[in-house]
Amino acid sequence: MPSDENGSTERGPWKSKPTRAPPEVDEILRRGRQRLSGLVPGGAPPVKRVLLGAVVAVLAVGAWSSYYTVPSDSVSIVQRFGKFSAEVPPGLHFKIPFGVDSTTLVPVKRQLKQEFGFTTPGATDPYQSPTNGRLETEMVTGDLNAALVEWVVQYRISEPRKFLFEVREPSATLRYVSESVMREVVGDRTVDEVITVGRQEIEIDALRKMQELTTKYAMGISIDQVQLKNINPPRPVQASFNEVNQAQQEKERIINEARRAYNRVIPLAEGEKDQRIREADGYRLRRINEAEGDAARFTALLTEYRQAPEVTQRRIYIETLQDVLPAIGSKIIVDGSTASILPLLNLDRQPGGQQ
Q: Contact at 8 Å (CB) between 139 and 187?
């Protein structure tokens, strides 16, 4: 494997930046070179001087490449003679130089994403290989119609060891898995569902199936989200689909307006109905109570009449006159012998026509 200037071998696109030696290490190396130059006499043979210089150079390179730094969002996988040795957390660490230990940085805390059908500069998956985006997006729906589907898969590396060693090309494999699952999910639905109302269901089903496959293949990947972007029909029929969508939107608008009118009129009618029912119940109770009162009063009067007919008859007669006479504006005299009513002059009227 190629190694950087620190001597650490990196796999994948995440390579640690070259780090400079601390001042203490430079000072130690400088003192070592001075001591070794003091041990070599001035008149020593050139071969011996060259060997000693080579030894000093090898020691300097070994010291320079024996340490490395792991970023805070990553871990380092250490391989000793190509075999997995350890998983190192973030920080400054040391290793055996000269190719004995090799390190690979894996960003386990960074959210990665793969884009299908389009490319965002600087935001794509580092492992992503160039592909034909148009071929990825061309799909056939369940009713044998064509659709162009663009989507994004966001994921994290949850198990670095599996990600590096269980699958040969994990990112490419994830891309194939994502495309296969999306074609399956889209193929189970009609083109209207894919373009309009079925987007959320497609995202949920695709996320579940992708996670199941990545777990089955031991890829060490955790799928966070599957998000659909643009879903369009093929260009030859895109204008017709736009007209259909506009008609559906107009239909939804009219339905919503009708529902608003319904919600405005029906509660008012329900309230008026309840008011009429309450008024009718009140009128019914009032009439019943009045009828029961009249019946009770008539029954009591009948009982008294049976006990004293003449007295009761006269009392009724007098009570009736007391109710009637105040409404009449003149004095009258009733002649009991002839049973005739003789109207008299109004005694309350004063001379001059004044009361």
A: yes
